[in-house]
Specification:
The protein has 274 residues and is of the alpha/beta class. The protein contains nine helices and twelve strands.
Length: 274
Amino acid sequence: MRPINAGGEPPTRPLTAEQAWRATADRAGRCVLFFDFDGTLAPVRDDPTTVEPAPKALAAITALTEVVQRVAIVSARPVEFLRDRFAGAPGVDLYGLYGLEHLHASGETITEEAALPFVPTMAELADHARAELPAGTLVEYKRLSVALHYRTAPHLAEQVERWGRDQADRLGLRVQVGRMVLELKPPVDRDKGMVIDEAVRDAGCAWYFGDDVSDIKAFAALRAREAVDPDFFGVCVAVANPETGDEVSTAADLNIESPEALGDFLTEALHRLT
């Protein structure tokens, strides 16, 4: 492995991948790599319960845990789901439900206490959704949130979203919009941007890989860190998502075509960092 030093002046933007990895190599021991899951490390599927990380991407991030300071998944999925998918990568930290849950390597899952009173609310909400929403809506119960998917029935988007927003108003919940999904979650101040803001305070470098609008807050957290620490180097990477336009891609430094292409990108990164 090449010697790790304090790092030189961060490169200016716009960035190329080569410039970004060269600057990262000088900071590898102080660098954190953050990854969204669905649409980033794993292709989106009609049935969210069947989603698995792209094999090459999984192999690469497992190897990267030995090269950088930390590798972490920051996802809308529950930690339990993520733990199953990353069982072969014990060095990866897991942040689930937008940070309401987290599991650091070889530790126990910690849940935000302010969210726990909403567990019965979410269970009841999931039951109502299954009874009241039309066929074609997939209701995903996550203990601390409920996601209403209409990927297989896009004509239901308006009806599902209206129902979900009405329930959010009735129950005092928050709404998170995603790729062909509307999610209801507790009114607790926790999102991907807050996770990143806290996790990079002692880092000298961080990358965030995401594909959806919720990932833009994570991008913003890296930009904010750079603004207060000129020695910090952050890279925002968007994985192509045709379903939400170009909002995410234009907020990023680099763009990648798919989770499978991300696997190739990270495999190349291993060669550059070791």
